[in-house]
Write a structure and sequence with these properties.
- The complex is a heterodimer of chains A (about 400) and B (about 500).
- Chain A has helices at about 1-15, 15-50, 75, 110-125, 130-135, 135-145, 150-180, 190-220, 220-250, 255-275, 280-315, 320-330, 335-350, 370-405; strands at about 80-85, 85-90.
- In chain A, α1 crosses α7, α4 (about 110-125) runs parallel beside α8 and α4 (about 110-125) runs antiparallel to α9 (about 220-250).
- A two-stranded antiparallel sheet of chain A has the order 1-2.
- Chain A is elongated and about 100 Å long.
- The longest helix of chain A is centred in the C-terminal third of the chain and has 37 residues, at about 280-315.
- Chain A has one domain (about 1-235, about 340-405).
- With about 400 residues, chain A is an all-alpha fold.
- Helices cover about 70% and strands about 0% of the residues of chain A.
- Chain B has a domain at about 1-60 and about 75-95 and about 105-255 and about 380-395 and about 450-485.
- Helix content of chain B is about 75%, strand content about 0%.
- Chain B contains 17 helices and no strands.
- Chain B has helices at about 1-15, 15-60, 90-95, 100-105, 110-125, 130-135, 140-145, 150-180, 190-220, 225-255, 260-290, 295-300, 315-325, 325-375, 380-390, 395-425, 455-485.
- In chain B, α5 (about 110-125) packs antiparallel against α8 and α13 (about 315-325) packs across α14 (about 325-375).
- The chains are: A mainly alpha (about 400), B mainly alpha (about 500).
- Chains A and B meet through α2, β2, α4, α9 and α10 of A and α2, α3, α4, α5 and α10 of B.
């Protein structure tokens, strides 16, 4: 019976106008996005080749996975050099010439999945129960020997499979196209990460599909279900992740970067002016050492506050599956907060580790992006579990609501 | 009759569930957003004051002539519309090693977000079934069967629907205005309130364009279910896709070198100029050898006495010889003049080549940004963002304005510093300069007080995009009108 139900649901969806429009929309968007981001990756590679020729700079190559989730890639691929007053400075970002990039969002696959396809998932599911009730087919189905658990399971499986198939085909097409090009060199790690990213995307989209089903089970008219679905979607996708970030700032006071840089510059200038007045080399060295430790203290205080802000912000925003998915996806692709923190530590260690003050005798900077196992071990698995938990909770809610649903 | 239709449409909407949800969402989100952003604004103001004081204190202690260049004040104050709209980050804060990357992953929530995402979605939800819903319920044919013209019906639906949509929005703004007015940290003058009024008017133009989009799609459909899907399809493209894709497409169509590549090219040019300079110097030496023969060998033997090279040569001996022999002096003067001339030529050629390179990059970048702006402008969202940011001084234009303002201040500061330095040097005429230069007393230096651009200037920049928003309204209404005239109400 379950097979019949799944088949019926799939056929119903495949023949609907909704399916055609969502398939066309998602296919166009995914392919356009992958193509645009592939060209952007090409520019990043060109930029890297120029930056890498400077031996004193700590710079890492862009990852081909940034085509799918760009995240903080522009920050990560800057060249870091040690400048005046033992200050690590970062080069301009690749796109910093065109200021309009600062106004709008990056249209990568991650954005399409977390914003547009989550909306599509809800649009697929919002009238699954309330729509059938309005059409009168629900009471006919339930008048037979069909149990409600089987009916809801059939609806979920059939609906979700018909929704996810076009998405998978479009991503597959885009991935084959991109990886067949000579510029993109993916190793086994990258493939494993891409696989995990797609798996987490499916789990994430299932959350929104279940949510649409839950709302459908809680309402009796599809127009009400639609309005509620859209509002819940707007709250989960936009409101909570964006609000959580600024809400965290209310609890942890972090000075602005301008203030930090100003303080560091002032410490360095005052030290150098005093050094010029000192006669003994030993005294000069001691003064410079004191200046460095003062700067380190200011920076450490900033970093500690900043780390607290990030942790709190992550905890608040995880109330939304979108935030959990964003953290998980960007970390998996090596373009997230985890990689950013790890790279900064590596750069600091490199700059103040081997070699002398001017950077002579310093070996070339080498850095290995986080492996998928490490990502899962350092918070990734938690995010994945949060998504799974959302699925279980929401589907259970939909199941209970459907058991008590008045089909008349 | 128009009034009756407007009243009916209005009442119909406000008794609907979507109105209640919209009202609650608007009020809660707007008020929460203003309260949180006002708190942020207070923190940023405190941070700004601290930075200004730090710089003043530092200038009082460490203003050595050689270091003042790094100590010139010019901190950017938080934008006065910060309690409503989060400004665009400056390159200074983005290009720091210790920058905060979180806003890249989650763009912050502000008034622009509320209008562009929540209100546009709400507008579509209010209008997607304005025609199809009535057709399906059968009331449309009943209304048309009377002596009501289709124009009146459409106009009534537009006015009534927009009025019911604008109410939650205006209420939310009023509560926000009350909060801003009562908050002692926020001191707005007349021009700021005028900007807020204009911002509200621009927001209403944007919201009505999406209401009309929904109305237009409704006249093109026969069923509400199809109408909503088409509406959301268009909404996704206009709000989520076109504005974000615009800059990337323009980056491909008009490719420009990165800052790093340009800096590298500038270095190469400078190196090439320096090589030419070295070559010209050698030619000059050859030329003088031929011209002065043995006399010039004397100068050569003294390593050209600091004339040709900065780091070697016996200048004192050359001076002695010049004092004793007028012919030698004439040759040295001639040689020095020629060396200085080719040195000036080299510096001029080098800086000109570099300037040309950077100007070329700026011109290309401006062309790319213009193209990106125009491409994104296909969407009403981008046009509204330009209008709102330009009007409130939170956009790219305001960043440019701030840089120009700061540049003018720096020039004034430079003139002041030159005057003080000259006075200090005159006072210590016969003493050698200490490392880093003399200490300058800059207590009465010109203060950096940022002044907002005039409303006229801001309005001038915003009007073209506001006009496009108005055009979207006209086009959507005209299309809805044309289609509704031939709409099959059965």
């Amino acid at each position: 019976m379950l097979g019949t139900l799944i088949r019926k649901e799939m056929l119903l969806n495949l023949l609907s106008f909704k399916f055609s429009i969502i398939t066309v929309l998602s296919t166009i968007l995914i392919l356009v996005s992958i193509f645009i981001m592939y060209r952007d990756y090409g520019l990043a590679l060109e930029n890297y080749e120029i930056l890498a020729s400077e031996s004193a700079a700590a710079v890492i190559p862009p990852t081909p996975l940034s085509i799918f989730a760009k995240g903080l890639e522009e920050n990560l691929c800057r060249a870091h050099v040690l400048g005046f007053g033992q200050r690590i400075s970062a080069s301009s970002k690749q796109q910093s010439v065109n200021d309009l990039f600062k106004v709008f969002t990056v249209p990568d696959l991650l954005y399409i999945i977390k914003v547009i396809l989550s909306l599509c998932a809800m649009l697929f599911a919002f009238d699954m129960v309330s729509g059938e009730k309005e059409a009168g087919t629900l009471r006919q189905s339930l008048s037979g020997s069909l149990g409600r658990p089987i009916l809801i399971a059939g609806k979920w499986i059939g609906g979700f499979v018909s929704f996810i198939l076009p998405f998978f085909l479009a991503v597959l097409l885009g991935t084959i196209f991109v990886t067949s090009l000579p510029m993109v060199q993916m190793n086994t790690q990258d493939w494993a990460k891409l696989g995990l990213f797609l798996l987490s995307s499916v789990i994430y989209l299932a959350v929104f599909f279940s949510l649409g089903l839950l709302i459908s089970c809680l309402t009796h008219r599809s127009s009400t279900s639609l309005v509620l679905s859209l509002f819940v979607w707007a709250i989960l996708v936009f409101l909570i992740p964006n609000l959580g970030n600024i809400l965290a700032r209310q609890f942890v006071e972090v000075p602005t970067v301008q203030q930090l840089e100003l303080r560091r510059r002032q410490i360095a200038i005052s030290a150098w002016q005093e050094v010029n007045r000192l006669q003994l080399v030993r005294e000069r060295m001691a003064r410079l050492e004191r200046s460095r430790s003062e700067q380190d203290q200011v920076t450490e205080d900033y970093r500690n506050r900043f780390d607290r802000l990030v942790t709190l912000s992550q905890s608040i925003t995880r109330v939304s599956p979108t935030a959990a998915f964003t953290f998980l996806a960007t970390d998996l692709m090596g373009t997230g907060m985890l990689e950013e923190g790890r790279l900064k530590n590596a750069v600091v260690k490199y700059m103040f580790g081997a070699g002398d003050e001017e950077g002579r005798d310093r070996p070339r900077f080498s850095y290995q992006r986080t492996s998928w196992r490490e990502v899962l071990g350092r918070g990734g698995l938690n995010n994945l579990l949060i998504l799974v938990l959302f699925n279980i909770l929401i589907f259970s809610g939909a199941y209970v609501a459907f058991l008590r649903y008045d089909a008349r | 009759m128009l009034k009756t239709i407007v009243t009916r449409e209005f009442l119909d909407n406000i008794l609907n569930l979507r109105f209640m949800i919209g009202l609650l969402l608007c009020l809660i989100v707007t008020v929460a957003c203003i309260i949180i952003l006002s708190h942020d604004y207070r923190q940023e103001l405190a941070d700004y004051s601290l930075r200004v004081n730090l710089q003043e204190e530092f200038l009082g202690k460490y203003a050595l002539a050689g270091w003042v260049g790094q100590l010139i004040p010019g901190q950017k104050p938080p934008e006065r519309f910060r309690p409503l709209i989060i400004g665009i980050p400056t390159n200074e804060s983005q290009d720091s090693f210790y920058d905060n990357p979180l806003p890249i992953l989650f763009p912050s929530l502000d008034f622009l977000f509320i209008v562009t995402i929540i209100m546009s979605l709400l507008a579509i939800l209010f209008s997607y079934d304005a025609i199809t819903g009535e057709r399906q319920s059968g009331t449309l044919r009943l209304v048309i069967a009377n002596s009501v013209s289709r124009t009146t019906i459409l106009l009534g639906k537009f006015i009534g629907g927009t009025a019911s949509l604008i109410i939650p929005f205006i209420l939310a703004i009023l509560v926000g205005v009350l909060y801003i007015n009562l908050n002692p940290n926020i001191q707005w003058d007349g021009s700021a309130w005028a900007e807020l009024a204009l911002l509200t008017a621009a927001s209403i133009t944007f919201i009505t364009s999406f209401y009309l989009l929904g109305l237009m799609v409704s006249t093109f459909s026969t069923h509400s279910a199809i109408s909503i899907l088409n509406c959301l399809f268009l909404w996704v493209f206009l709000v989520l896709v076109i504005p974000n894709v615009g800059p990337y497409v323009s980056a491909q169509l008009r490719r420009i070198p990165s800052i790093t590549a340009t800096a590298r090219r500038a270095e190469e040019l400078s190196r090439a100029c320096r090589e030419t300079w070295h070559q010209r110097r050698e030619e000059l030496v050859e030329q003088f050898r031929g011209k002065y023969g043995g006399l010039f060998s004397k100068l050569e033997a003294l390593d050209f006495g600091l004339i040709l090279y900065d780091d070697r040569g016996d200048a004192e001996k050359v001076q002695e010889l010049a004092a004793a022999d007028p012919q030698f002096k004439a040759m040295v003067d001639d040689f020095r003049g020629e060396v200085n001339r080719i040195g000036r030529e080299w510096q001029q050629a080098s800086s000109q080549a570099e300037d040309e390179l950077w100007t070329d990059l700026r011109t290309k970048a401006a062309a790319q940004t213009r193209l990106a702006k125009n491409l994104a402008g296909i969407s009403p969202l981008a046009d509204y963002v330009y209008v709102a940011r330009d009007l409130t001084g939170t956009g790219l234009r305001s960043l440019k304005y701030f840089e120009e303002f700061k540049g003018k201040y720096r020039r004034r500061f430079g003139e002041y510093k030159a005057k003080v330095t000259a006075a200090v040097v005159a006072a210590h005429k016969n003493e050698p300069s200490p490392p880093g230069g003399w200490f300058l007393d800059l207590r009465d230096h010109p203060r950096f007080v940022f002044q907002e651009e005039s409303l006229k200037g801001k309005l001038g920049a915003a009007l073209p995009y506001w006009g496009i928003l108005g055009l979207f309204n006209v086009v959507f209404f005209a299309a809805a009108f044309a289609k509704f005239m031939r709409y099959d109400v059965r």
